[in-house]
Design a protein that fits this description.
- By secondary structure, the chain is α/β, with parallel strands linked by helices.
- The protein has one domain: NAD(P)-binding Rossmann-like Domain (Rossmann fold, 3-Layer(aba) Sandwich).
- A seven-stranded parallel sheet has the order 3-2-1-4-5-6-7, sandwiched between helices.
- The longest helix is centred in the middle third of the chain and has 29 residues.
- It is globular.
């Protein structure tokens, strides 16, 4: 069945693609035949490992997606390689804390990195996609943006904003052959979640009906499907991958 989800020769941008969920998505898209333009900020060792693994199929761009000029460099490279057909907005950060004690900087940095970057990247790629009358955008949100989570008002606001942005953009560009969807992971085993205290990790696991923590490889196949022609009649949707946590 995976053979049906091919994107041979298509140029795909993945932000935050050097590790975690982003890395799994890169590997899935590379396996599907895409040429990758991968943004990363600090994960140099992981980025080098990805290049060693994928060779000429991957092009790395170090930069901060909260900075518009860095976003532009990523898109410029993708356009020079033949034009962006796929955009996966995956980059994100957390700055957790109770709202009553949250510094303005922690609010702003999360909104800028997690939400403003999606706006900027989508704005940069939709023009060329509209001209080509084809494109697929997948924005990574979170079940936190649907359910809320104590201590994550900034993160939840950003992730909820991504859903609203994506649904609206999907309506704006559908007539010109561009699809926009969201994937909302639940509790996934990444560097971010593995840094939690063991007790918090175990408590999170117990809340999941499937009684296991998700992996990046649980997310990547869905992204691969959504950017392929097999999903050609799907747009404006949010797909939850959380083991039943939000059921």
């Amino acid at each position: 069945m995976a053979e049906a989800f091919r994107v041979d020769g298509q140029v795909a941008i993945v932000t935050g693609g050097a590790r975690g969920i982003g890395r799994a998505i890169c590997l899935a898209l590379a396996d599907a035949g895409a040429t990758l333009v991968v943004n990363y900020r600090r994960s140099q060792a992981e980025a080098d490992a990805l290049r060693d693994l994928l060779g000429e199929q991957v092009h790395l761009v170090q930069g901060d997606v909260s900075v518009e000029a860095d976003c532009q460099r990523v898109v410029d490279l993708a356009e020079s390689l033949g034009g962006t057909r796929i955009l996966v907005n995956n980059a994100g950060i957390t700055r957790d804390g109770l709202l009553m004690r949250m510094p303005d900087e922690d609010w702003s940095s999360v909104l800028t990195t997690n939400l403003d970057s999606v706006f900027r990247m989508c704005r940069l790629v939709t023009g060329p996609m509209l001209q080509r009358r084809k494109g697929a955008i997948v924005n990574l949100t979170s079940v936190t943006g649907l359910m809320g989570n104590p201590g994550q008002t900034n993160y939840a606001a950003a992730k909820a904003g991504i859903i609203g942005l994506s649904r609206s953009l999907a309506r704006e560009v559908a007539r010109r052959g561009i699809r926009v969807n969201c994937v909302a992971p639940g509790f996934i085993s990444t560097d971010m979640t593995r840094a939690l205290p063991e007790r918090a990790f175990d408590e999170a696991k117990e809340r999941i009906p499937m009684k296991r923590i998700g992996t990046p490889e649980d997310i990547a196949p869905l992204v691969r499907f959504l950017v392929s022609d097999a999903a050609s009649y799907i747009t404006g949707q949010t797909f939850i991958v959380d083991g039943g946590l939000s059921a």
